[in-house]
């Protein structure tokens, strides 16, 4: 039984989809047992038919007996079978072992029923990797692999290649392997979906023969309008544009446990690119490697982001590993190896209170932390930063810089001596009532101090002075420091000092 609920919505306003706002199709357990892409009365169920059944657009009673044998009514086994008080529909796979690639002839129906689960893990390879792959039919441009317009949807255990030619994309028509949310059209209002999970997928690659460059996917996951979206344990690679990109709304976005590499060769170059309202986004424990731009790039966002415990490697020579715009971001405990700079923070639009703490850097041609001036808004500055700043006393206004131009700490000596007890007393000055973080350093090609290993922290007093005793330093090693204040953020690195033994 199906109940169609008519909605009267203002075409210019976004709404959050709830279970009461989508077609109430009967919850079903459906097994896809054919890699064909059609809807017709025969002996098998296709993915297109399965989505149409979950949406309520294909009547169960009109199926053949053989087709009905692949479908059962959903029952409640555990809490995961519910979404907002309603039983979920499950789509599973049992394809012949030599017919696991589904070549899409025309765009698949959007997923429009809350709580739907598309589960490719029901049929994995012997290596427990995705066996079911989706790709456009030969010479057929398909903008989106799966388009999610409902809340509570899970897509897992599939591989996608060749969706979303970025040359055809417009802002109103996002493209990619998986697209989340609804933009305003003549036929539908803008809608925000929530509680979507994208897990254990391969996006941009598959176990089947690779497609040529002309059929690479445009983007991996495109969140146009979403809340509480979780993207975890996926491999996102070989996208023409970014592996993950946001559009208008992506609040409470959680990106964790993914491998995001070799994306952006032909378009938006960054591994992860965040725009729009991205408040309370968390990017954690990802491996982000060898993308054509920055590992993570924030462009004029609204809201704050936490970037923690990621491994970011081999960014492009002229790009930062992490590029920030905006206020209140936190970058901590990341391991960053970059040909260019580590973390660049733009001053325009105004960027404040960005905390860069306990990271390990291996940069070759740029600062570990670079606070850019508002005067530097050229293309190169959005990629490479503007280098070390002078003390803010040399400028008309320290607010012309990212993080309010907070000055780097100053050590009281260019060298510190190891005492008879093997410890070293470090003294310096910085902003009063702020946190000093000391690092063991190396030097890059230009002689800049690279913050290679966090050592310890100490708080400055009301006069801005600090003192700390360290027992882990050896002769000839060098140290540097940053200062962080809740009203400003984190500074660039100080000039380094060398550790000496007693002669």
From TrEMBL:
<feature type="signal peptide">
    <location>
        <begin position="1"/>
        <end position="24"/>
    </location>
</feature>
<protein>
    <submittedName>
        <fullName>Right-handed parallel beta-helix repeat-containing protein</fullName>
    </submittedName>
</protein>
<keyword id="KW-0732">Signal</keyword>
<dbReference type="InterPro" id="IPR006626">
    <property type="entry name" value="PbH1"/>
</dbReference>
<dbReference type="InterPro" id="IPR011050">
    <property type="entry name" value="Pectin_lyase_fold/virulence"/>
</dbReference>
<dbReference type="Pfam" id="PF13229">
    <property type="entry name" value="Beta_helix"/>
</dbReference>
<dbReference type="InterPro" id="IPR039448">
    <property type="entry name" value="Beta_helix"/>
</dbReference>
<dbReference type="InterPro" id="IPR012334">
    <property type="entry name" value="Pectin_lyas_fold"/>
</dbReference>
<feature type="domain" description="Right handed beta helix">
    <location>
        <begin position="218"/>
        <end position="361"/>
    </location>
</feature>
């Amino acid at each position: 039984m199906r109940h169609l609920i008519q909605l009267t919505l203002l075409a210019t306003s976004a709404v959050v989809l709830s279970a009461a706002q989508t077609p109430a199709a009967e919850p079903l357990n459906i097994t896809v047992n054919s890699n064909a892409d059609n809807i017709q009365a025969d002996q098998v169920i296709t993915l297109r038919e399965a989505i149409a059944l979950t949406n309520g657009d294909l009547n169960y009673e009109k199926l053949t007996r053989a087709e009905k044998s692949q479908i059962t009514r959903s029952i409640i086994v555990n809490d995961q079978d519910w979404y907002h008080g309603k039983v979920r529909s499950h789509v599973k796979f049992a394809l012949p072992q030599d017919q696991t690639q589904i070549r899409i002839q025309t765009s698949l129906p959007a997923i429009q029923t809350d709580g739907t689960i598309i589960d490719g893990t029901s049929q994995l390879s012997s290596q427990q990797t995705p066996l079911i792959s989706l790709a456009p039919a030969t010479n057929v441009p398909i903008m989106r692999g799966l388009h999610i317009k409902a809340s509570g949807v899970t897509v897992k255990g599939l591989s996608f290649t060749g969706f979303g030619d970025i040359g055809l994309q417009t802002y109103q028509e996002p493209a990619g392997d998986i697209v989340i949310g609804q933009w305003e059209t003549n036929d539908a209002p803008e809608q925000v979906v929530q509680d979507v999970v994208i897990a254990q997928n391969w996006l941009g690659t598959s176990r089947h023969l690779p497609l040529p460059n002309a059929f690479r996917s445009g983007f991996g996951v495109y969140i146009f309008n979403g809340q509480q979206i979780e993207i975890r344990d996926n491999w996102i690679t070989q996208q023409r544009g970014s592996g993950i990109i946001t559009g208008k709304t992506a609040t409470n976005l959680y990106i964790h446990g993914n491998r995001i590499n070799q994306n952006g060769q032909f378009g938006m170059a960054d591994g992860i690119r965040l725009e729009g309202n991205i408040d309370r986004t968390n990017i954690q424990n990802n491996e982000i490697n060898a993308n054509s731009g920055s590992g993570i790039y924030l462009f004029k966002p609204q809201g704050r982001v936490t970037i923690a415990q990621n491994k970011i490697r081999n960014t492009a020579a002229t790009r930062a590993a992490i590029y920030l715009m905006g206020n209140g971001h936190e970058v901590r405990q990341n391991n960053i190896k970059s040909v260019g700079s580590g973390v660049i923070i733009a001053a325009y639009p105004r960027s404040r209170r960005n905390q860069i703490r306990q990271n390990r850097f291996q940069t070759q041609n740029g600062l570990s932390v670079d606070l850019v001036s508002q005067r530097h808004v050229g293309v190169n500055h959005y990629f490479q930063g503007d280098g070390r700043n002078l003390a803010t006393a040399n400028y008309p206004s320290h607010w012309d810089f990212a993080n309010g131009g907070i000055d780097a700490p100053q050590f009281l000596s260019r060298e510190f001596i190891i005492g008879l007890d093997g410890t070293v007393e470090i003294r310096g000055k910085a902003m009063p009532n702020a946190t000093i973080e000391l690092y063991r350093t190396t030097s890059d090609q230009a002689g800049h101090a690279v913050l290679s290993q966090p050592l310890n922290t100490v708080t400055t007093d009301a006069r801005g002075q600090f003192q700390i005793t360290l027992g882990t330093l050896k002769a000839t090693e060098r140290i540097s420091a940053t200062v962080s204040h809740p009203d400003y953020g984190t500074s660039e690195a100080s000039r380094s000092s060398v550790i000496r033994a007693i002669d």
